[in-house]
Amino acid sequence: MKDVQQTISRLRHSKKILKKVLIDLKAQKTVLIHCKQGKDRSAALSAVVIALIFNTNFEKAAAFLRSKRYGAEPEEPVTRLAATCKPVLERLKVDAEIVKLVASFNLS
To answer: What is the pLDDT of residues 83-93, one digit of tens each?
Structure first.
C-alpha cells in the first residue's frame, strides 16, 4: 500500500517530468522511465505518457504496455492506481502546456 501511495503522490506532481519526457520523445531521443523495481511506478507513468500521446484512457494504455513489456504489469496495482491516474490524466489532457506538446506529435 505504501508503494501505491508513493506512486499516487509522484503522479500528482509529475507534470514537469511528463513535459521533459514528451519533449525528448518528440525530439526522437531515447527515454527510460524507471523506478526501484521497474513495474508499478514506472509502468503507471509510462501508461500516462502513452494515454496522452495516443489520446486513449489509462486502462487501454496500461494494457498496451503490459502486452509489450513483460513484468510491467501490474494487473492488480494498475487496477488500484487507475482510480487515481484517471483524474490526473484528465487534468493533464486539458493542461495547455501538455496539450501543446501532445499536439506536436501529430499521429493522425
So the answer is: 777 777 888 88
Listing DSSP states for 10-65 in one string gives HHHT-HHHHHHHHHHHHTT-------SSSSHHHHHHHHHHHHHHTT--HHHHHHHH
Q: To which H or E segment does residue 83 belong?
A: helix 75-94
Q: What is the DSSP letter of 105?
A: T
Measuring CA to CA, which residue among 80, 52, 11, 69 is closest to residue 61?
52
pTM recorded for the entire structure: 0.74
Q: Is 18 exposed, middle or buried (0-12, 13-18, 19+ CB in 10 A)?
A: buried
Amino acid at 81: L
